[in-house]
Amino acid sequence: MAADGVRAAGSGLGRRARPWGTICGTMVLAAAACGALSAAGALPALGGAYAALSLRLEHQLHTQAPAPPARIALGPHGRDIRFAGEIGEGAADRLAALLAAHPAVTRIHLTSEGGLVAEASAIGDLIAARGLSTYVPDYCVSACTLAFVRGTTRALVTDGRLGFHAPYDPGLFGQVVQADAAVERAAYVAAGVDPSFAAEALGVASDSLWIPDPARLVRARVATELVDTDRFPDSTLDDDPSLAGARAAVLRALPLLEALAGRDEILSALASGYLDGYRAGISEGEALDRLRARAARAIRQVLQGADAATWTELGGLVLRAMRQVGPDAGPEAGRDADPDACLAIGGTGDLLALQDVLSAPSLSPDRPPADAVRTLLARAARQAGPGGREAGPTPAARLPRDCAGLIAAYAEALARPGAGGAVRALASQGVRPAREAAALPR
Fold first, then answer.
1. What are the b/e assignments for 296-331, b being 16+ CB within 10 Å?
2. Is the Cβ–Cβ distance between 81 and 95 less than 8 Å?
3. What's the CA gap between 153 and 224, in Å, rounded?
4. Alpha carbons 87 and 111: distance in angstroms, whole number
5. Would you say 238 and 293 are in contact if contact means Cβ atoms under 8 Å apart?
6. Whether the Cβ atoms of residue 388 and residue 306 lie closer than 8 Å to each other
7. How far, in Å, CA of 285 to CA of 283, rounded?
8. Chain mean pLDDT for the chain
9. Gap between the Cα atoms of 248 and 255, Å rounded
10. In the prediction, which pLDDT does 172 show?
11. Which member of 26, 79, 338, 432 lies 3.0 to 4.6 Å from 325 by CB, making a disulfide possible if both were Cys?
12. How many alpha carbons lie under 13 Å from residue 424 in its C-beta half-sphere?
């Protein structure tokens, strides 16, 4: 397969008809026939007739439950539609009804693992007839790509994924019977896709998946543009726009917050704010910026209840991270200097920035454990409130406000007996990078 992409096994999508699972053993006669055909290797050769038999038997035996229907909903402000989930029976009809009721829609967001080819093609026909733009905010693979390429413009988020393989017919025991891809190849080419790309994409085995590099997708005219996360309204909750869905999305975006599992009031407030932003139609980039700012404030409040020992250990991690991005950073540390990150970590006690630095690839031999920051935050969250902490020393009149000065100050503080109070004072001085202060809401 092409070098500019990724192949993954076992996609199980892009089917002409739904795979109906293994039915051998449910009927004595079928069991004998199944074993004989499988042993002889004759199943793929039966092609369409074999698939049709499988479907008829499934219709009578109901050997596999259907997948949950995709969520198809109107986005904020009524200008786009969100499609999230497997493309199953009736999806095109549901989309047609929603489009008919909302003539102002100009774009459809697609997040799908694929599904029925006929339904995906019908969705593509609706997209083309209405002149809609298509946008993939995360992934669109297998049959989903047949709908995506019908957009008048086709946007893919910068790190998004489009995945391809040949269509298939279902087997009686879960086998994948690769089908002729002439119809799908013609559909790609008619949509403007480079014919050589279409041939390569549909030459991928049906039980595998090819995810080309985004740049290749643009060159092949599959996507017309790559966009940043601030271009369109957020789609991260398209599959589950509930408070529980928002909470799960928050934890996916900022795994460090799992340390606050026992502080439900904090996680619920963060999830509620994230859901409000989604419903208001803000962009994914803005949503993440707001979430990080709110989470950083919540974490700082939790840390105010931490004891001196926790602050001392945290100070050691802060010093390591600042050195990784400070003035002396370079190839040997695995990172370039980043003054903004240094100030956020040392000047405001931003544990999210700290985790980002310590989680990045590094050549440092004294790299802390990956979960060290999470462990300390979880400890702070379990400790008593501010009444149980030691009072730190009164901060100096002029605390360091530059990265080199902060590194020296932390090193000096950690060398003292009872360093926790001094570290707390350093991390609470509120030095913020100018760019962050201008960009993030407070």
1. bebbbebbebbebebbbbbbbbbbbbbbbbbeebee
2. yes
3. 6
4. 10
5. no
6. no
7. 5
8. 81
9. 10
10. 53
11. 338
12. 24
Host H or E run for residue 135: strand 133-136
Q: Which residues pair with 442 in a beta bridge?
A: none
Neighbour count for residue 196 (Cβ, 10 Å):
9
Q: Which position has the token pair 């013609």? A: 186
Return d(Cα 89, Cα 83) in angstroms, integer: 14
Q: How would residue 365 be classed by pLDDT, with cut points 50, 70 and 90?
A: low
Contact 132, 106 (CB under 8 A): yes
**Alpha carbon distance 44, 37 (integer Å):** 10
More confident residue, 332 or 93: 93
List helix spans (H) across 62-194.
91-101, 117-130, 144-148, 182-190
Main-chain dihedrals φ then ψ at residue 250, nearest 5 degrees: -60, -45
* Measured distance CA(287)–CA(274) in Å, rounded: 7
Residue type at position 129: A
pTM for the model stands at 0.78
CA–CA dist 197, 388 (Å, integer):
65
Q: Which residue has the tokens 């909750």?
A: 237
Residue of 57, 40, 45, 113 lying closest to 83 (CA atoms) = 113
For every residue of 227-258, DSSP letters joined together read: E-TTSSB--TTTT--SHHHHHHHHHHH-GGGG
- pLDDT value of residue 18: 33
* Choice between 368 and 153, residue whose per-residue pLDDT is larger: 153
CA–chain centroid gap for 98, Å, is 26
Using one digit for the tens of pLDDT, what is the confidence trace for 275-301? 999 999 999 999 999 999 999 999 999
Model pLDDT for residues 119-147, shown as the tens digit of each residue: 999 999 999 999 999 999 999 999 999 99
Q: How far apart are CA 306 and CA 345, in angstroms?
A: 17
Convert the pLDDT of each residue in 72-116 to its tens digit: 999 988 999 999 999 999 999 999 999 999 999 999 999 999 999
Number of neighbours of residue 348 by Cβ within 10 angstroms: 20
pLDDT band of residue 407 (cuts 50, 70, 90) is: very high
pLDDT mean over 46-61: 52
β-pair type (71-74, 80-84): antiparallel
DSSP secondary structure string for all residues of 195-226: HHHHHHHHTS-TTEEEEE-HHHHHHTTS-SEE
CA distance 91 to 66: 13
Compute the distance between CA of residue 37 and CA of residue 15 in angstroms, rounded to an integer.
22
